[in-house]
Structures are given as C-alpha cells and as structure tokens.
Amino acid sequence: MCGIVGYIGYEQAGPFLLDGLQTLEYRGYDSAGVCLNDGSELIVKKAKGKLKVLKDMTHDGEDLRGTVGIGHTRWATHGEPSDVNAHPHLSESGRFAVVHNGIIENYQLLKDYLTSKGVEFRSKTDTEVIAQLLEYYYKGSLVDAVIKALEKLDGSYALGVISQENPDEIIAVRKESPLIIGLGENENFLASDVTAILARTRTIYRLENNEIAILGRESVRIINTDKEEIHKEQETVDWDVNAAKKGGYEHFMFKEIMEQPKAITDTIAPRIKNGRVVLDEVSLSAEELKNFNKINILACGSAYHVGVVAKYIFEKMLRIPVEVDLASEFRYRDPIVNDKTLTVVISQSGETADTKEAMKEAQRRGSHVISIVNVVGSAIAVESDDVIYTWAGPEIAVATTKAYSTQLAVIYLMALYFGEMLGTIVPDEYKALVKELEELPDKINAVLENKERIQYLASKLFNSKDVFFIGRNIDYALSLEGSLKLKEISYIHSEAYAAGELKHGTISLIEEGTPVIALATHEELIGKIVSNIEEVKTRGAQVMCIACDNHKELEGVGEMIFIPKVCDMLLPSLAVIPLQLFAYYVASLKGCDIDQPRNLAKSVTVE
Ligand code: G6P
Predict the structure, then answer these.
(1) How many A from CA of 589 to the centre of ligand 1?
(2) Which of 400, 408, 593 to mutate to test the pocket of ligand 1 (most atoms within 8 A of CB)?
(3) What is the mean pLDDT of residues 297-302?
(4) Which atom of ligand 1 is nearest to the CA of 299?
(5) How far, in Å, CA of 199 to CA of 195, rounded?
(6) Cα–Cα distance for residue pair 176/196, rounded to 1 Å
(7) Which numbered atom of ligand 1 lies nearest the CA of 407?
C-alpha cells in the first residue's frame, strides 16, 4: 500500500521521482505527489487520480527544480483520495515534508495534542501529524527531530523526510513497512521496492525496523534510534531490469499470464535433481516432520486460494490434517496451534500485514513456519523459519497470475518432498509425479495457445451481471481463484461454489442465461459435476466447462475448453490458465483498467 521514492544527487530529481513512482504505482494509485528542495524552499506538486495526472502536470518531472526530493503514490486509508490528502505532507510552515506508507494508529491523539498547541492541520490524513511533529521538535538537527517524532508514533511506517534547512539530506526510516536504499555514484535513492531503482543501481541496503538512513549525495549513513552507527551489508539485486516493464504487451497482466511456463520452470527446475525433489531451504529433518500432527496454512487473497488447493493435495499425499486460514481471521481467533503444528505462510509480496502478523502469532505459539514468498528479503521471508522462494520475478499487475502459479508449483514440490520423507508416496507414483511436474510448463504453453477460444467465449459473456463458478474437490479450490480474478478486474459480480453445495441455496440465483463456469477436471468426480451442470442447465444457465481432453464425451454439456490430461495434483496449474485469460478478456472487452483495478492495491500493508 502506497509507494515511496526519494532521490539525492547532482541531477534534477524530478524525472527519476516520476519514473520511480510509475514502477510503484501497483502499490496504490488514487493520488500521487512529489516534493523537492529547490535550494531555497520546498516545492510540492500533488494531484488526485492516477500518476498520469501528476506526470502531465509536471511534464514527466522535467518542470521540477531541485536535486533532492521525495515522491509518493497513494492507496488511501485516512482521508479520501484528494489533492490535499495526497502525499507529501508539509508541516504548517512548509519547512518539513514527509511521505509515508503505513498507518499511524495514535494519530488522533497526536493531532489533538498539536492542535491544542495551536498547530493547524490541512489534511485528514494520519501522515500529516508526522510533518507537524518534525516542526514541533526541530532544534536544528533533522535527524534529532525525526528520532523525537518516532518516539511518539504507534503503528507502522516507512518514511521519507526532507526539510528546507537541510538541502543535503533525506532521512528514511521504517517500522513494519518496507523500505530500501539504493546506492549509486554520487547519487542515492530511496524506494518501497527495488523495481523503482533498478534502472539506476543494483546495490542496495534493506532497512530493518527502526534503522534510520541518512542519505547524502555521496554517502549513506545508517544509525539506530540512539544514534549509534550500524554497519550493514550491501546487497546486489539480480532482477532483470526489463522484467518490470511491459515488453510490448498491452498489459502487465497479459505479459505475466504468458510468462507462467518460464516462471514455473525457474521455480521447479533448480529443485529437481536426478528425478528427486530437493528442498535445501527446509531445515526440518524427517524426525521433526513426523512430529507434526497438523499443517496450518495462512495467507490472504489469491495466496489463500493456493492454500485451499494445498489442503486437498497435502491431505491426500501426506495424510496430515490441514487447516487453511485467512490470515486476518487467524490472528484474532485464539487458534489451536503449537509446536506440533507446521505452519505454511504464502505471500507474493512477503509484506501483507495480516499474513505477517498471523505468522508471528503462529511462531509465538511455538509453530515452525515455512514461508512461500516471491519478493526476496521481504519481511515474511526474513522472519519465517524457512523460506521457499517462488522465482516468478517481479509481478506488477494487481491481479496475480504468475505468483499464484509458482506458489502452486512450490506446493507440489513440498508435497513430493515431504511425501518421500514421510513415506506416504510409493516410489512409482513419486517418479511419475516428478516426471509430470517437469513436463508441466510445456502443457501450460499448450493451454496458452488456445487463448483465442477463450477470447471468443469471453466475447459471449462479457455483458453478464453475475457469473458463478462451480467445481468439486480441487476444482472447487480453483474456482475460488477463477471467481476472484473475474470480479477484481472486470467488476462483474461472481461467486465460487462447491458444486454439491449449490442446491442448498445459491441455485435460486440461477435464471435464464446466467453464466456458470464449471470445472470438471478432477477425474474421480466427473460424473458428479456433470449432474450439477445438468441441474443448473435445467434452470436456464449457460455453461462454460473446463475439462481434460481425455473426456471428449463431455462435448455438449456446455461451451467446452479442453486442457491436456495430467495427474490430479497438477490439474489446477492447467485449469487456472483459461480462468485467468477469461477474466482478462472480459475486462478488456469491458474497457476496464486491467492492471490497476479500482479500489485495490497489490501490496496490502495495512490491516
Ligand atoms: C492483494 C493482491 C492479491 C494478493 C493478496 C495477498 O489483495 O491484489 O493478488 O493475493 O493481496 O498478497 P500477498 O502479497 O500476500 O500474496
């Protein structure tokens, strides 16, 4: 939620700030702003709406003067999206400017206090209190004022601060929200995420909680809140700079859909050695693994849907009971978790606030946590006991596709690896599954080649008001993701239902012409789902059905999409492709803003 950038060097800061914000727009896009020190005063430009408004206003930053500046792209929490609530926020006199990602939980208390001292506030944001506190505490040292202000703040924050009196420094600090420092030649950078600085430098510091970075043009110092120097290791980022660009595609989402075979190959290939899955990242011995009597999966959004698929797979292959929880619910339900529970946390960003806090709750209760994360060095990756990275590369579209698919791939790897350790998979089955897993990217390519068929079906259904997704077993788990994809980017109401449950209420919503997307890939339950399809067709539903190509007899139950036959475990990886493409084409036909759907943000760092 919210993206932060900062620049200090000898060049004009404006163009970098605007470019950097562009790459961070996935984090929030209801308003944006920049503030530069032009040598004598702080100049702020900000605007409600997409970054484009600010870019046009400043001619891509060319109109801005100053070699030090900060910028922000916002996903509103406190105060509606508006020019005045956009960041950066200035103190009353205009001498201190702040950009902030996170939430200041005690802002009202602080605001009341400052108001009682005569300070006048302009915005409805929690962030403005920080700017006002800086001015209130400033006695000639910006860093001292920041430290004093931090003592008063409760909540989460990544902050970038500049001041009129200090044209040669930016102060950056974080607590529970991500922030990295980029180290260049005679220039240094600040950003919420490395994609913003990749074009300029690959050398970074990743700030830890309560570390304060003082960025100058030629050096960066890092101190703690007692002003003691901290020696930090520099990191080199090896992400491909083009990975965060559209590369000729109209949308990031489509590009990322097409990248899935490669992302899955990158995720599985290094972990299959001589026909065996090897997860060196997992520190558990077979003895320790056998000690667990439950697996607990925690995640939000699409990552949660991966968890639901994982429940079916783990229970079948490992014979251990699995509970899947929405992280936001788990946190507050006094869960029964202890050292006999293995917790699996799934997160693309590795910074989702609820997921992170749920993970900590599980750890507090003695559970060993394995995380499945895409962003290297993110909080969840660092704080979990073991991390298995998905090598999907940067995912920019708000609606996840390749991260979802690579998370599934890790679930398969874990099922095979643990299954072998526990002896719950017989060797022949193991061998066959590993072989099929290695062939999966090619089969995904085959499904992607059928995209025109899905585009055609999307053109028949894009005017629908409601769409239902049904399935059984692993198909049900996948239908949850199909439904979410459609609603988040096309704004069509949709629901996913376990097909057998439909008749207990929801079938009353089916009327003449209602689209029902039926997933009929799970071999053992084909007969059952076909009966459910007949039930909705009898009531007028138009059915689109996804099935494996060894079931051509299903031709006629609806508009068919056939996918290659694979073993049940791997089916979701193939069947999800038509669902992603369907959502994409529907949204495209409706003219929706596919990469940045309304009201959403990719990285949800608030509760
Ligand atoms: C947001 C994104 C979803 C994602 C969810 C969890 O809602 O739009 O695509 O599944 O957050 O994010 P995470 O980074 O933890 O996977």
Answers:
(1) 24
(2) 400
(3) 97
(4) 15
(5) 8
(6) 20
(7) 16
Q: Provide, rounded to the nearest whole percent, the portion of the chain with pLDDT above 70.
A: 100
CA dihedral 479, 482, 486, 489 (to 10 degrees): 140
Kindly state the DSSP code that residue 166 receives in the 8-state scheme: E
- pLDDT score at 547: 97
The 3-state DSSP class for residue 397 equals coil
Note whether 411 and 270 are within 8 A (CB).
no
Stretch (H or E) spanning 537: helix 526-538
What is the DSSP-derived secondary structure letter of residue 500? Answer: G
Q: Find the catalytic residue in 48, 111, 356, 602.
A: 602
Structure tokens that stand for 229 in this block: 């120097």
> Tokens 């059905």, residue?
545
Concerning whether 402 is annotated as a catalytic residue, the answer is no
Question: What whole-number distance in Å separates Cα of residue 261 and Cα of residue 443?
Answer: 9
Q: Do 169 and 184 touch, CB atoms closer than 8 A?
A: no
* Contact residues of ligand 1, CB 6 A cut-off: 300-303, 347-349, 352, 355, 398, 400, 600, 602, 604
| Dist. CA 348 → ligand 1 center (Å) | 7
211 or 605, greater pLDDT: 211
Q: Report which protein residue has its CA nearest ligand 1's atom 1.
A: 602
The helix/strand count (H/E) of the chain reads as 18, 26
**Residue from 29, 256, 300 to probe ligand 1 pocket by mutation (most atoms less than 8 Å from CB):** 300
| Structure confidence at residue 168 (pLDDT) | 96
pLDDT value for 263: 97
pTM: 0.86
Rounded average pLDDT over 172-201: 94
Mean pLDDT rounded to a whole number for the chain: 95
Cβ atoms within 10 Å, residue 128: 29
What residue type is assigned to position 259 of the chain?
A: E
What's the mean pLDDT in 263-280?
97
Decide if pLDDT at 602 tops 90: no
- Confidence band for 211, pLDDT divided at 50, 70 and 90: very high
Q: What are the helix (H) ranges across 123-243?
A: 128-137, 142-152
- Residue 243 confidence (pLDDT): 73
Task: Give 470-507 pLDDT, tens digit per residue.
Answer: 999 999 999 999 999 999 999 999 999 999 988 888 88
CB proximity list for 542: less than 8 A, separation 6 or greater: 460, 461, 513, 514, 515, 516, 558, 559
For 476-510, letters b (16+ CB in 10 Å) and e give bbbbbbbbbbbbbbbebebbbbbbbebeeeebeeb
Average pLDDT over residues 571-590: 96
Bridge partner residues of 273 (DSSP): 276
The answer to whether the beta carbons of residues 3 and 73 sit under 8 Å apart is yes
What tokens does 590 get? 């409706």
Q: What is the pLDDT of residues 326-336, one digit of tens each?
A: 999 998 999 99
CB 558 within 8 Å of CB 518: yes
Residue 602 falls in the annotated catalytic set: yes
Confidence of residue 160 (pLDDT cuts 50, 70, 90): very high
Tell me the CA–centroid distance for residue 603 and ligand 1, in Å. Answer: 6
**Pairwise CA distance, residues 466 & 507, whole Å:** 13
Cα(115) to centroid(ligand 1), Å: 38
Q: How far is the CA of 118 from the centre of ligand 1 (A)?
A: 42
Kindly give the pairing relationship between strand 235-236 and strand 203-206. Answer: antiparallel
